[in-house]
Amino acid sequence: MIRIGIYGYGNLGKGAEAAIKKNSDMELVAVFTRRNPKDLVIATEGAEVVASSDILKYKDKIDVLVLAGGSATDLPKMTPMLVENFNVIDSFDTHANIPAHFKNVNEAALKSGHVGFISCGWDPGMFSLNRAIMNAILPDGKDYTFWGKGVSQGHSDAIRRIEGVIDARQYTIPVEEALEAVRSGKNPVLTTREKHKRECFVVAEDPKEYERIEREIKEMPNYFSDYDTTVHFISQEELKKNHNGIPHGGFVIRSGETSNGVNHVIEYSLKLDSNPEFTGSVLIAYARAVYRMAKRGEVGAKTVFDVAPKDIQTVSYEDLLAHTL
Amino acid sequence: MIRIGIYGYGNLGKGAEAAIKKNSDMELVAVFTRRNPKDLVIATEGAEVVASSDILKYKDKIDVLVLAGGSATDLPKMTPMLVENFNVIDSFDTHANIPAHFKNVNEAALKSGHVGFISCGWDPGMFSLNRAIMNAILPDGKDYTFWGKGVSQGHSDAIRRIEGVIDARQYTIPVEEALEAVRSGKNPVLTTREKHKRECFVVAEDPKEYERIEREIKEMPNYFSDYDTTVHFISQEELKKNHNGIPHGGFVIRSGETSNGVNHVIEYSLKLDSNPEFTGSVLIAYARAVYRMAKRGEVGAKTVFDVAPKDIQTVSYEDLLAHTL
After folding, report:
1. For residue B322, what is the DSSP state?
2. Cα separation of A49 and A40, whole Å?
3. Staple partner for A174: which of A95, A103, A146, A248, CB 3.0–4.6 Å?
4. CB-CB under 8 Å, A303 with B306
5. Residues of B with CB below 8 A from A92's CB?
6. Subunit contact A305:B305, Cβ cutoff 8 A
7. Where are the beta strands (DSSP E) in A55-106?
8. Which helix (H) or strand (E) holds B236?
């Protein structure tokens, strides 16, 4: 059994916990929390809830520690710190800061002799993996990434900060015509507006404010002004009933030529009922690779680019040859 | 430069040759042929055309030998034989015989100290890779593979063997309703007939024979009788004009739950203008991994399951972190 710890018990931590239940070679040893452990009820019988300050007591009881923290402030400190004593895996997703994060984790991991796996999930993660493989196979081509239909937490938060808004949910939606143009192999040049549109469901105090709120949303720079944005005002009850999930997904498409006029389109897509549960499932599959790499004596920072597919499998290599190849 | 040899110069050999031109870290040293080398004109200036009987003279001049032979009779003998003196890669695609082929190649490769990479292409190959990763991420789910729209050489040949048929081209086409049912996450149970249909373009000598030929096609066991099959009689000119390409493609879809009622759909698809050119491109990308594995001293039979994505890249790991992850 691979002994897993989960550090943090928000949506992602719960997603990782759900994923462990689907993998019979894994067991959840403990959830570590910055809250009072007594206030936390987890979904796994037999697993402990432990104060994060007590984590070093679990140094020899955990094979891989899943870090379910946020990328903005948690993981940049948390991953280098915890890799001093554990093999860890995180879902660090601030793309621009990945090289710096890799460097910090790598230094600490090399020093302590652990594996520090970073930026695992679907983007970064599965989307990155597919982009890398597609590029190697079709070097003469063009990449496209579309996100959605899915909830953007950042955009939902931005709407909530507008005066008079009680609650909001924002969906990022890929534009179907753009997807079709890419799939046709035409290699179109697409603007931000042509690729995605944004749909907002907003609960506001006063109907007299609707017009102002809608205008403030649509004109918000970076978040909305470059997109075709639709705003719907609904009741808190309706928001709770119809927009309570955290679905997401997207498309990575590469279109390229192998000789003059001979074109190929490779497409990878995800349609996810729950963004954190899927991300948790990717983390848990790659935690298996972390375990195996550490057992072989590999150390340092790692990413999806370092993992041979056989290292995330529960089935034997012989089974893969007979049934999957 | 990675020095490549191509063994066999049919459609697949030509596809591999085209792929080498798109990869600046590779050069084609020689094409080996069982025909008279003087009769063969290849598309690469500076590369040699050599009789296959002279191949041992190239033992130190080639890093990876791409085996562009057929799976029925060529590769089962060719791959174990050539791995005695070369690092090789093949596209062996008789799924049921992969474990036996792997065993034969592995024994010969271990004995000689080479890498023998087998079953590379898109199915087996990219489809297998995606099936393996999808299964690891969503262990509680169901796989679906659809092929097409594309030309099936075996089915076209079967039609050509019917009396009175001059030429024929058969397309395998996935049934759109079945694809949609799978994408919806309903995990449908689908019969052979529900998954694919077959469309045949036939050139026949005598219009009075059309009815009999159409009946013989539609009733042919294994090939057509389990499918909804459409037959069109056309002229040789029309066949040549509109059905001269070798397009193919397909879909691998996995649909699975991470917790009760929370479903996810992962889809990988290919739309290929030329089956052999795409297969050649996959072979050439993985030839890079063969080269690197051999340089590291790895030996034995290998498949796509053994390759970390970084090993098929031309760009540096730092570039991958900064731009692809």
Report:
1. I
2. 7
3. A146
4. no
5. none
6. no
7. 64-67, 88-90
8. helix B236-242
Per DSSP, the three-state class of B44 is coil
Residue A281 contacts B, CB cutoff 8 Å: yes
Using CB atoms, pick whichever of A133, A277, A325 lies closest to residue B128.
A325
Strand partners, B228: B197
Q: Which residues contact B161 (CB under 8 A, 6 or more apart)?
A: none
Q: What residue of A is the nearest CA neighbor of B262? A: A273
Q: How many CA atoms are closer than 13 Å to the CA of A29, on its beta-carbon side?
A: 17
* Number of residues in chain A: 325
- Omega before A309 within 30 of 0, i.e. cis: no
- In this structure, are residues A168 and A290 in contact, taking their beta carbons and an 8 Å threshold? no
The two three-digit tokens of residue A32, written as one number: 């570590």
A contacts of B185 (beta carbons < 8 Å): 271, 273
Walk along chain B (325 residues) and give the pLDDT tens digit of each residue: 999 999 999 999 999 999 999 999 999 999 999 999 999 999 999 999 999 999 999 999 999 999 999 998 999 999 999 999 999 999 999 999 999 999 999 999 999 999 999 999 999 999 999 999 999 999 999 999 999 999 998 899 999 999 999 999 999 999 999 999 999 988 999 999 999 999 999 999 999 999 999 999 999 998 999 999 999 999 999 999 999 999 999 999 999 999 999 999 999 999 999 999 999 999 999 999 999 999 999 999 999 999 999 999 999 999 999 999 9
For residue B117, the distance in angstroms to the closest alpha carbon of chain A comes to 13
| Minimum-distance CB partner of A274 among B262, B271, B321 | B262
* Burial class of residue B162, CB neighbours in 10 A (0-12, 13-18, 19+): middle
ipTM of the complex: 0.96
